[in-house]
């Protein structure tokens, strides 16, 4: 009893100590008080052995335990936690600042002060407060920038409302970007009726490779093969030993339970209720049954197959679960060679293998069984080679899912769900398992935690019968009995999209029937989801499928309109066509804030800052203009649109407190900017100078102190005086309007105040989206961009050019004073028919930076260009300092950036990127939106010397394997099947260039396939009027010189063939040669191991290795017959011309020679002429009839003679054409 009492006392003491310890650790203040009491009672000298155990410094803060793997350079906003916010709120609300001293006190007057509102802090007080809360002063430099963002009222103070509003908007945007996901299904599903199923549901869908085909197997054994475009190809019927054919509808004793594709040996295994497995060979275009394993002890109900991809002919396993809850494993030792032992036999058909005699095939296959894994039939099975485990499921609530080891080396994991599991899927990289049940719920599990799922997602109205995990999208696809597909986000556990498949069998409220495996997810390159319902098949095309393999980073998901720099906050603002605005830190390239749906769904077309750099102005394609607080993204004003037309320019005039906007409305709109609290500002079109533009205004620019220039599509350029709103000078008047065009607009538009206005002012496509622009003859190019040289414009009455305009690639230089305004011009792009959409200059106007529609940036030295008036217009280019490729498509804006670390160029393009470059050298710093941040002060963090196209992706393409090329070819074939009109990428050319560079050659040699004739344009500085046609038809290389743009083939019929082969044979020969070239280009080199990997003696790939047929050449020692020698021919003097005109006729000696016939003038109606015509008419048909069939009978010299003659006769025909 004493022992028991001692133990009880010890346990009570331990429990008390444990509860006291837990209480102290949970209450920091009490723990601190206890420490002080202990120190007072027991000084350190009395307790030398007691030392306060300190945790490692890196683990003192629990937050560091969670965030030890994150980036060390975290932003301040990311470091602030909830308890930090509580402390900051208390400090702001309880802060009582000192009064502001206005005048110091004197002996006669007391000091004059101004009270400060409580809760407001200046910069130093704000930095001290934040550093005190965070316990560090490492963010002092960043707090200077943050204070400028928070000080929205520009009074030098920040309160709690401004600070919390900024953080709220920032966290809201971060949450939106984190939860934002692309919906996978953006197209209507394709639905096809499987007539061959004979009204029976489909049991399984499998995908066969090489080439890709979808195979559906019905419950009664109908095998249907489909193209990737879901076009039906062929079908087969599984033969049964005793089919019931009493009626028209065939009935079988067996039902198909499952099927699976075995990729390494190109076979499909099909299981049925007849307790058998049939193996079909699908390596050829004709599928046939090769093996039939029958008399299994139980019914195989579900399959899974595994093989070593690195060694396909090594051990592979076919796993199947039966209706008694056991798992069977068939191990094939050499599956590529053969699956079973093949005896010598004379009868045809599938080889039947009795299950009891499987030991006789022990050289090729072995069998193993795992008993009693589930209490009832197994519905699905999956093998995990990494852990050598098997996942299986059934409808039992006690053993719904079991993860068991094949050798039973570990205890199985058992998952229990009330209504069992109908389907599951597992992903190793994500380490999750997803199950679907009849209780309408989808559950996400940690495969090692069986007690409780990670998440339960509900939303289906009926039972879930299929689930699939898409790793790239981080999404789960689920399919329910009512033919509804739902998409779930794995991270957020939320439903992203619901698609109702309208199968004919599921309408009118009827519950359709489904097979056991009604869903199949096909990966890249097809990226489709296939579902079945009764005897129907549906295809859902996936959109974006995860992270692209390309290493090229993008700034936005759509094309950019511009990128502008805020020098006050040292940030970059970008806008795109998806109506999103992003703010970026220029020193690191990181995103600060993003405004989504700034103009709803309209494209953003222009952006600018006011003079204080605190407000951001944006205009959209529908005419709306909005004013934003740059620091926190708050919408301050909404300006009334003048018309539903694109806004191309905005200028906020701070002195007059007005906003001037122009665009495709052709009007100068004014908005009052005096009232900061006025949310909706009406438009005023009472511009004193009048609305002079007769066409769409495309660009504008401002030059201090009061010059504003506008330019329109018709080429008109007007310089305005902003103070008086009157015209200062009209540099060029617009082109007169076309009467026919006005009539068309009048028919399709309306008349307002005597003006003809079309119904849709945005009928013309966006000019930023074009790749090239060709100016027609007699047409004035539209003015794409105007730029003031502000340092030159500051000098009044200057004779130098102060304005630059870009018009179809031509840069024109204008002087605002004097009688002669246009001082110079030159064409800037390197290629023809390009335009300059982006221009900027440095602060001193030393250099001009231009960006064209090909994505090139050029740096021009303009310090001495057009600085003095001259009698003649300057047509020479200024010195080109640098030029480099910056983007893949048109550059829409260039911005000069002056930073304390140096001078840079900011570029934006329609290739969805904004990039930063050094000023003159063009060194690539980085793309806004890339994963790795840069530091402008540290050159080692820049991307230079790499470029946006540094060959991570290019080398991958160059070193691509044969399998990559074949898969790319299959993808092209699939696209061809999906689209009725398929054009290969190499044949996709601009229509205008094709009209200029290609000549229709059907009139030259009958059809386009007969020869490869291309017209190549000379790229000399002064274009010649002659073009060069190079004919490469397999016979000769012929050069014809033609006048450019005046070449006409006329209406004459082409000459008939002068060879003994005939026109039809020539066409066929040219077609075969072209097909051989195309096949060699597509397939590349031929690998014999690849062609014979299945033991075939011949294959289509081997046929491609035949050498290309070469054209016969005329031998130097050509043997001549006696008749040729008698006619004066010798082997040394035979020329092409003589051989073509050689006469082989057997005419009488009185008949003149061919040369005499050409020189002889025959009189119409004479006897000689009539006789010659008849003889030629009689000889021509006989020769043409006998020429083709008698080729094999000709002797070798005669055949060589005629083939050589034919080649040169065809050459002559081409030359004459």
Q: Can you describe what's shown?
A:
- By secondary structure, the chain is α+β, with helices and mostly antiparallel strands.
- It contains 21 helices and 64 strands.
- Strands 8-9-10-11-15 form a five-stranded mixed beta sheet, with no helix packed on it.
- Helix 5 (82-93) packs antiparallel against helix 6 (123-134) and helix 6 packs across helix 7 (140-150).
- The protein starts with a helix and ends with a helix.
- Residues 44-72, 243-247, 750-760, 953-1058, 1093-1097 and 1147-1217 have low confidence and may be disordered.
- WD repeats lie at residues 421-446, 457-498, 597-638, 690-730, 829-863, 884-927.
In short:
By secondary structure, the chain is α+β, with helices and mostly antiparallel strands. The longest helix has 25 residues, at about 1-25.
User: What fraction of the residues are assigned to beta strands by DSSP?
Assistant: 25-35%
Gap between N and C termini: 125 Å
The number of helices is 21
Order of strands, main sheet, comes to 8-9-10-11-15
Which stretches of 5+ consecutive residues score pLDDT under 50?
Answer: 44-72, 243-247, 750-760, 953-1058, 1093-1097, 1147-1217
Q: State Rg.
A: 41 Å
């Amino acid at each position: 009893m004493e022992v028991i009492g001692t133990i009880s006392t010890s346990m009570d003491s331990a429990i008390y100590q444990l509860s006291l310890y837990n209480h102290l650790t949970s209450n920091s203040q009490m723990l601190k008080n206890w420490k002080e009491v202990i120190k007072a009672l027991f000084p350190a000298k009395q307790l030398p052995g007691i030392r306060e155990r300190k945790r490692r410094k890196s683990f003192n803060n629990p937050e560091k335990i969670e965030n030890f793997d994150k980036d060390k350079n975290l932003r301040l906003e990311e470091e602030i936690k909830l308890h930090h916010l509580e402390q900051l709120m208390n400090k702001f609300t309880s802060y009582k600042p000192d009064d502001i001293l206005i005048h110091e006190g004197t002996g006669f007057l007391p000091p004059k002060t101004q009270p400060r509102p409580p809760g407001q802090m200046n910069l130093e007080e704000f930095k001290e407060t934040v550093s005190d809360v965070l316990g560090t002063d490492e963010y002092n430099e960043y707090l200077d920038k943050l204070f400028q963002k928070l000080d929205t009222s520009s009074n030098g103070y920040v309160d709690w409302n401004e600070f919390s509003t900024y953080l709220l908007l920032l966290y809201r945007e971060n949450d939106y970007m984190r939860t934002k996901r692309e919906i996978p299904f953006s197209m209507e599903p394709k639905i096809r009726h499987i007539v061959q199923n004979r009204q029976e549901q489909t049991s399984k869908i499998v995908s066969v490779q090489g080439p890709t085909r979808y195979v559906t197997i019905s419950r009664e054994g109908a095998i249907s093969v489909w193209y990737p475009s879901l076009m039906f190809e062929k079908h087969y019927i599984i033969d049964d030993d005793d089919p019931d054919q009493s009626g028209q509808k065939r009935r079988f004793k067996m039902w198909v339970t499952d099927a699976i594709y075995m990729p390494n040996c190109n076979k499909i295994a099909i299981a049925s209720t007849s307790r058998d497995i049939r193996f079909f060979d699908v390596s050829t275009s004709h599928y046939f049954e090769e093996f039939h394993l029958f008399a299994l002890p139980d019914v195989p109900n579900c399959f899974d197959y595994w093989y070593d991809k690195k060694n396909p002919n090594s051990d592979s396993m076919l796993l199947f679960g039966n209706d008694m809850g056991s798992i069977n494993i068939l191990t094939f030792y050499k599956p590529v060679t053969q699956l079973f032992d093949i005896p010598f036999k004379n009868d045809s058909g599938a080889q039947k293998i009795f299950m009891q005699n499987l030991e006789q095939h022990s050289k090729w296959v072995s069998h193993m069984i795992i008993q009693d894994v589930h209490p009832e039939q197994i519905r699905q099975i999956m093998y995990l080679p990494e852990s050598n485990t098997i996942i299986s499921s059934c409808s039992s609530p006690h053993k719904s899912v079991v993860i068991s080891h094949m050798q039973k080396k570990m205890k199985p994991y058992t998952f229990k769900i009330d209504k069992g599991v109908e389907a599951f899927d597992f992903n190793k990289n994500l380490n999750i398992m997803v199950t679907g049940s009849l209780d309408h719920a989808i559950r996400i599990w940690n495969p090692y935690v069986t007690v409780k799922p990670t998440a339960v997602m509900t939303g289906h109205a009926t039972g879930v019968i299929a689930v699939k995990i898409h790793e790239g999208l981080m999404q789960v696809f689920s399919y329910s009995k009512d033919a509804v597909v739902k998409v779930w986000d794995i991270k957020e556990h939320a439903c992203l999209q619901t698609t109702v498949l309208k199968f004919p069998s599921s309408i009118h409220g009827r519950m359709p029937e489904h097979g056991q495996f009604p869903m199949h997810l096909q990966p890249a390159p097809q990226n489709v989801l296939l579902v079945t319902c009764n005897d129907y098949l549906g295809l859902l095309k996936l959109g974006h499928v995860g992270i692209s393999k390309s290493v090229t980073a993008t700034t936005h998901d759509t094309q950019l309109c511009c990128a502008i720099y805020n020098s006050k906050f040292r940030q970059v603002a970008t806008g795109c066509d998806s109506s999103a605005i992003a703010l970026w830190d220029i020193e690191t390239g990181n995103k600060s804030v993003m405004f989504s749906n700034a103009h709803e769904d309209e494209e953003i077309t222009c952006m600018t800052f006011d003079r204080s750099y605190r407000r951001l102005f944006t205009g959209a394609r529908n005419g709306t203009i909005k004013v934003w607080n740059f620091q926190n993204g708050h919408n301050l004003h909404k300006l009334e649109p003048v018309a539903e037309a694109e806004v191309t320019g905005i200028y906020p005039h701070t002195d007059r407190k007005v906003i001037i906007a122009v665009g495709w409305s052709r009007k100068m709109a004014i908005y009052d900017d005096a009232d900061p609290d006025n949310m909706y500002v009406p438009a005023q079109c009472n511009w004193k100078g009048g609305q002079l533009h007769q066409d769409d205004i495309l660009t504008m620019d401002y030059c201090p102190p009061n010059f504003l220039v506008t330019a329109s599509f018709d080429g008109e350029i007007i310089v305005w005086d902003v103070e008086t709103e009157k015209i200062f000078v009209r540099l060029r008047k617009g082109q007169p309007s076309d009467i026919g065009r006005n009539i068309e607009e009048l028919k399709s538009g309306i008349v307002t105040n005597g003006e003809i206005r079309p119904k849709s002012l945005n009928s013309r496509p966006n000019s930023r989206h074009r790749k090239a622009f060709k100016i027609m003859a007699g047409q004035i190019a539209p003015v794409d961009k105007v730029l003031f040289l502000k340092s030159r414009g500051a000098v009044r009455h200057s004779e130098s050019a102060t304005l630059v305009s870009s018009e179809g690639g031509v840069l024109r230089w204008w002087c605002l004073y004097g009688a002669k305004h246009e001082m110079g011009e030159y064409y800037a792009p390197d290629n023809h028919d390009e335009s300059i959409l982006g221009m900027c200059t440095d602060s001193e106007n030393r250099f001009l930076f231009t960006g064209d529609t090909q994505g090139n940036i050029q740096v021009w030295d303009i310090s001495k260009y057009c600085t003095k008036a001259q009698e003649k217009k300057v047509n020479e280019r200024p010195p080109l300092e640098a030029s480099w490729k910056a983007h893949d498509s048109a550059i829409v804006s260039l911005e000069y950036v002056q930073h304390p670390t140096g001078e840079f160029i900011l570029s934006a393009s329609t290739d969805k990127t904004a990039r930063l470059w050094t000023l003159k050298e063009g060194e690539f710093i980085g793309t806004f939106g890339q994963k790795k941040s840069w530091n402008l002060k540290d050159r080692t963090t820049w991307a230079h010397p790499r470029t946006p196209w540094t060959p991570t992706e290019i080398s991958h393409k160059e070193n691509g394997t044969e399998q990559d090329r074949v898969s790319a070819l299959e993808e092209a074939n699939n696209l061809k099947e999906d689209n009725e009109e398929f054009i290969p990428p190499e044949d996709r050319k601009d229509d205008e260039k094709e009209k200029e560079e290609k000549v229709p050659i059907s009139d030259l040699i009958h059809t386009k396939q007969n020869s490869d004739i291309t017209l190549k344009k000379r790229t000399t500085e002064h274009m010649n009027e002659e073009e060069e046609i190079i004919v490469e038809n397999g016979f000769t290389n012929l050069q014809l010189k033609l006048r450019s743009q005046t070449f006409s083939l006329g209406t004459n019929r082409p000459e008939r063939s002068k060879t003994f082969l005939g026109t039809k044979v020539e066409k066929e020969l040219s077609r075969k040669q072209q097909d051989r070239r195309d096949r060699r280009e597509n397939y590349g080199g031929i690998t014999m191991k690849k062609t014979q990997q299945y033991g075939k003696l011949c294959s289509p790939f081997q046929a491609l290795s035949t050498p290309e047929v070469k054209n016969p050449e005329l031998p130097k020692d050509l043997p001549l017959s006696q008749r040729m020698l008698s006619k004066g021919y010798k082997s040394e003097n035979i020329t092409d011309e003589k051989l073509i005109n050689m006469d082989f006729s057997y005419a009488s000696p009185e008949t003149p020679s061919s040369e005499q016939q050409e020189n002889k003038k025959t009189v119409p109606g004479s006897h000689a002429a009539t006789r010659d015509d008849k003889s030629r008419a009689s000889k021509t048909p006989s020769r043409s009839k006998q020429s083709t069939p008698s080729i094999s009978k000709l002797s070798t010299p005669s055949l060589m003679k005629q083939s050589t003659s034919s080649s040169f006769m065809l050459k002559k025909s081409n030359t004459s054409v």
